[in-house]
Structures are given as C-alpha cells and as structure tokens.
Amino acid sequence: MLYYKDFIFAFISTVGFSVLFNVPKKSIFYAGLTGGIGWTIYMYTKDITISSTFSVFLASILVGILGEIFARVDKKPVTTFVIPGIVPLVPGYTIYLSMVNLINQDFNTAAKFGTEAVFTSGAISVAIIFVTSVAKIMKR
Amino acid sequence: MTQEEKKSILRIALYAGEILLKNGGETYRTEETIDTICKSKGLKHVNSFVTPTGIFVSDDRLDGISFIKRIKGRTINLSKISEVNNFARRFVEEDISEKEAILELRKIDKERKYKKSIRTFFTGLASAFFALLFGGGATDFILAFLISIIAIKVNWEIEKLSNTSFLANATSGALISFLALCSKSIGFGTSIDMIIVGSIMPLVPGVALTNGLRDFISGDLIAGTSRVAEAILIAISIAVGVGTVLKLWIHLFGGTF
Asked: What residues form the membrane-spanning segments (chain B) (predicted)?
C-alpha cells in the first residue's frame, strides 16, 4: 500500500478536471476512479521498469479498458471516462517545458522534452485506439 | 421524400455534428453521428468531412446539395457529447419530427451543466492536487489552488472579449508566474516549479495533443495535423506568458529561483 497517496491525489485531481470538463454528476465517481487507477499503475510500472513511455502505455490501456467497462455500466459514451482518465498521464507540462526551453534558446533540452511529449501522448493514443478497436471487434 | 425534407435531415445531422465538434468530440465520432442520422432516414449517399475548424456535409444524389459549418471555438464538455449521443440513438430508433429534433438539439446546445463558481472551485482543487502529485508541499498546495483559480477566471474573462485564445493563454501564463514569484519572494511556498506546474495544469494542452495524435493514427490526417498544431500553439502562448515574466523578474530583481 505504498501508492495510496498517489491514488488519492490523482483521484481528486481527476474529479476536479471532470467538473471542468462538465462530466455528468453520476459519472464523476467513475471518471475519478479511472484517473486514479491509471496514475497508480503508471507510478507502479515506472518504479519497476524505469521506462516512462512504456508505463504510460500500460496505464492508458488500463484506462481504456476501465472506460469501456464504465461505459457499459453507466450507459455513457467511452469518452466521458477516457478523457478525464488520461488527464494525469497526459504530457501537458512536458510540452510547456519544451516550449519554454525553445524560447530560452536551449534547443537540446527543448528537443528532449518535445520528443518525450510526443512519445508520451503517442503511447496514450495508441493504447486508447488499441482498446477501442478490440472492443469494437468483440462487440460484433 | 421531398427536397425540403431531405434538407432538414441534413440540417439536423449538421447541427448534431456541430455540437459534438464544438464540445470536444472526436473527429470519427462526429462523422459517424452525421452518417448514421442521415442513413437512418434514407439518405444513403451522404458524405461528411470533419476538420476541427469546419464540417462539410454533402449528398451527391441530391442535386449536389452540401452544407458547410464553420466551427470557431472548441472546449471540452463531455455531458453534451453524451447527450447528443443519446439523441442520435433515439433519432435513429424512434420517429422524431424535424422541428422537435432541432428544438431538442438547441436545448442541448444551450444547456449549462455546472455553475461557474463550482467549476472554478474544482479547477483550483485539481491544480492543487496536481502540485502534490508532482511532489509539492503543503504551502505549494494552497498557492496552486489560489493562483489557478485567479488564472482560470482571468482566462475566461479575456476569452469572452477576444476571439483569439493566444491573448488569454499568454496573459494567464504571465499572471501565474508573476503570482508564483511574488509569493516566493515574500517567503511563502517552497518551490516555484511546483506552484507553476499545478497552476498551469488546467491551461496546458496535453489532452489536445493526445486527441490530435489519436485522430492522426485513426486516419483523419487533416484533423490530426490541425489539432496537433493547435496544441503546440497553446503551449507556445503559455510559455510566452510565463517566460516573459520570468525573464523580466530576473532582470529586475535578480535570480530568486
């Protein structure tokens, strides 16, 4: 139970973002759960594998699966849970850092953060698309 | 089916697509919704082409009638997406008249889910817990909460006045770093980085970049490129705001961070 703090923080910030994104009241708990679990898994796999991109990929697959499950339980589109769920994983701060370094003419650091941002969001989008495609095939 | 009826079905589909796209729906979802609405009423040859800035709907068997809708602003409003989804499902299954359908869509379009004060409060909460998530302390938590509330308020107010989001993002970025530097220099708050990380979280385009790449990978190339470009532009505008204030501060008062 080393990660309970991570879970709680990620849960509450996902809930906050859910309100900002106008998620319906009944679905907010599920959305928060998706975000919290996603982040906890990310932290855990990052600790054991060190690779940040791989951990993001695994966590996003889990977020996608949880989104599909909650969409069936709550009768809402999958996006309602996936968008808040990926918020803690998404590389918003990294893109920002990349641009700040670009402005400060520190091109090496900018390139480092920039590629990291593209890799991270690429991993997230591949994972989400992977889950939705499999879910679509299984539904048929 | 008369020409008028066909036109009104296209109009309903276009309106549904517009609401989806304006509120952060994915490109493929918008296209799918438009196509299913049209196909359910017998318009089998409808093509829709959706980009983040405009929707094109055309029926090549209907004297080449086509509709274009320009989309100006985009936010994320997931409850509207889910409502339009429900509406499309009902429209396909049941027999809803055109007037009712337009009225219902207008109701969805106008609806406000949460009060502004509640949304502001939760934005602050999200930012504050983000600061903790990245390893900030208790004072950073409080500061991120207050600063992000001020920043998002200012962002919304400027967005009301100006059409370009560049000004709003740059101003709130500048405000965030200014407030963070001020609080640090009076001895409150442990790490400027953590305060800034938390506070800029609601503005930063992480979700936009990921959605862009999602579109890109699913084959909506134009939508994908423009969403990625938008995300980069937002990041630049925030960085311009933050960077300007940091540079000025160091120049005037020396390096306090």
From this structure: 120-152, 164-182, 194-211, 231-250
